[in-house]
Amino acid sequence: MTTYLLLGASGFLGSQVHAAIEQSADAPTLIAVSRRPPRQRMPPLGSWAQMDLVGASVRDFVLLLEKSRPDAVINCVGATSGSWHQLEAANTSVVDKLVQALSLTESVPLIHMGSAAEYGRQPEGAGIAESAPANPVGDYGRTKLAATKLISDMVARGAIRATVLRVFNPVGPFCPSDSLAGTAVREIKRALEVGRGSVILGSLWAQRDFVASSDVATAALRAVATVDRHPILNVGRGAAMSCRSMVELLAAAAGFEGDVLESPGGSSRSATVPWQRADVTLLRQHLGWVPTTPIAAAVSALWQTEV
What ranges in the chain are assigned the alpha helix state H? Predict the structure, then answer.
């Protein structure tokens, strides 16, 4: 029976990993760690440890590892917006302290949630492989890339065992409010509440590789058994979809029949990174994993958590 130490259990991806662990057939033990209580009820073989992971020290992480004695650590701690200091603290500093702690304790596999934002702009039309040069365009991507480099360097030195999952554009319950899906949910809810016949969002012409957050969670669990095979793996559907198509699927799930309009100013991120699609060859080879959830089902699940 596997014991999972899930860091950031109350967040967007953490909640999905929590659910995947609870639904696992081998009845694993879950130790959920977060500042706020997890969104789901704890499974019978589960416990919640309240901890400020961003403010924690290396020693705090060492004590957590020694007390919980996990078979695997899954790190879902992170921030998608905020100042440089806030992003660095949540996306890089936490990882720095965690990998130091892992190097000082027994060898435990680490699965870390990275981001496609680490790649930045890449040639359009072809899948982005893990070997592509990473050129993030914003502070979020830069701080996530710094964490990936910390992990990769420690793996190369033999100090830890870890895999970074470079997650492309996850969609599902509890999406961050500042994400496109989160913003669209908020605007559609307002339109339905007041009977407005349209919603206005930013630019929707960019192409993204949307993937169900529930599928990301199952990939994370699968990666535990193959952690020594590859230090970085893309997680996506391997297909590009326009942001407009995703929002229209969400509108359909909400029963919103009005117009979806775009603001004239557009989105600076869409202009800088207009197209992304994951090359998921390594994911399939090393994990034997393929996504199983249609994006229509993922956005429907997102909407159901909001009503």
Answer: 12-22, 58-68, 84-88, 94-104, 139-156, 180-194, 213-224, 243-254, 268-272, 281-287, 295-304
